[in-house]
Automatic annotation (TrEMBL):
SUPFAM superfamilies: Creatinase/aminopeptidase, Creatinase/prolidase N-terminal domain. It comes from Halorussus limi. Gene3D superfamilies: Creatinase/methionine aminopeptidase superfamily (3.90.230.10), Creatinase/prolidase N-terminal domain (3.40.350.10). It comes from the Archaea. This is Xaa-Pro peptidase family protein. Residues 13-115 form the Creatinase N-terminal domain.
Length: 400
């Protein structure tokens, strides 16, 4: 029951980027992206208008943070030095980071960006105003394939996401409001998760619980990213659910199409087509398989069934520290890889350690139909991480 990234993982990750820094002939690697900084050091923060800048050399790890993050980061055992500015725009974030690099004896860097991202109104100088900058996306690429430890963290997320989804199904009934049903399911699953894990749970939330579940209903389901409708549940409603849990920053994705009461023939028909499309996709998964091929198999199935016009998105995406991560199971992925500088042929293929959401959907004018399961690619096949039942009977909620 793993609940946190082991120290050895961070050692391996830092060693890997140090090899890349050496190969690039740079004095240091620099990262502005919050997820990359978390991946390399375990320091998680909310990316705002206040930049955080990580620098890694062959023997040191240093970070520049706003004053309000100093206490959170200075105890991190993987960071040797903490530099800070007061705030933005009252401080000088990139200038402070340049001073950090100067103190490290750095004149050239390989960076994930030439300056802090312009989020929440931030505007500031380029890093190349102070040091020589070469671009790199090493960490983004490293995150495609998960280690065994990361796969187990996603599996643990799926376990608690499954519980949250079970509560969601149990609490769903005519007359309830979708928002409060979702909140109740998330609360009960979070309570169980916190009680079970105790001190082993790594806090990653600010007010929200670690497990969550919810759904959209009725006409909103016809929109792949529909919103929770402000109306109470009714007999005959179609629901598209979602559940997950945060385990040291890692997450899974579980979605189901459910019916509140007996589905009519048309609803059952589209449900079964969606379910078969998901099965087609899962059967096509495996190491060495082109991602484009999997999406093409589903598209061919949709065309054979005469419902290709009801598709709204590709089959799925990688998942881990991010809810959506590359690579993507998309018909255009092979072409995309061929057009990107530095991409290799293998970048177009699935490989062991990739973890995908498999979620082909069908969307009529009235309702949407989509399951999503989280599945890891192994050396010789696949490993299902989510496990809530997929069949129609198990996803029909009837009044007792």
């Amino acid at each position: 029951m793993p609940t946190r990234v082991p120290d050895s993982e961070f050692q391996d990750r830092l060693a890997a980027v140090r090899d890349r820094i050496d190969d690039a002939g740079a004095d240091a690697g620099v990262w502005f992206g919050a997820t990359s900084i978390e991946y390399l050091t375990g320091f998680d923060h909310i990316q705002t208008e206040r930049p955080v800048v990580l620098a890694v050399t062959d023997d040191r790890v240093a970070v520049t943070v706003p004053r309000l993050e100093v206490e959170r980061v200075e105890t991190n055992p993987r960071i040797d030095a903490v530099h800070h500015y007061f705030d933005y725009p009252g401080g000088d974030p990139v200038e402070t980071a340049a001073g950090m690099l100067s103190e490290l004896g750095v004149e050239s860097v390989a960076a994930d960006a030439d300056g802090a991202p312009g989020v929440m109104g931030y505007e500031g100088p380029k890093l190349s105003s102070f040091v020589e900058v070469e671009s790199q996306n090493w960490v983004s690429r490293m995150r495609w394939a998960k280690s065994d430890a990361e796969v187990e963290l996603v599996r643990e997320s799926a376990r608690w996401g499954n519980l949250a989804h079970r509560y969601l199904a149990d609490f769903t009934e005519v007359g309830e409001h979708p928002a409060t049903v979702s909140q109740r399911a998330s609360l009960e699953a979070s309570r169980a998760m916190l009680d079970a894990l105790g001190d082993e749970y790594v806090p990653r939330t600010r007010g929200d619980g670690p497990a969550m579940a919810g759904f959209i209903t009725g006409e909103q389901t016809a929109l792949p990213h529909g919103h929770t409708a402000n109306r109470r549940l009714q007999e005959g409603d179609v629901l598209v659910t979602g559940a997950s849990a945060d385990v040291d920053g890692y997450r899974s994705e579980l979605e189901r199409t459910m019916f509140l009461g007996e589905p009519d023939d048309e609803q059952a028909h589209y449900f079964e087509l969606m379910l078969e499309a998901q099965t087609v996709a899962i059967d096509a998964l495996g190491p060495g398989v082109e991602l484009s091929y999997v999406d093409e198999q589903v598209w061919d199935f949709f065309e054979e069934q005469g419902v290709a016009d009801l598709a709204r998105h590709h089959v799925g995406h990688n998942i881990g520290l991010g809810a959506h991560e590359p690579p993507y199971i998309d018909r255009g992925w092979t072409t995309h890889c061929a057009e990107q500088d530095g991409r290799e042929d293998r970048d177009a293929e699935m490989e062991p350690g990739h973890i995908y959401t498999i979620e082909p959907g069908i969307y009529t004018d009235e309702y949407g139909y989509r399951h999503s399961d989280t599945i890891a690619i192994t050396e010789d096949g696949v490993d299902w991480l989510t496990y809530f039942p997929r069949d129609l009977e198990s996803n029909t909620i009837r009044a007792e």
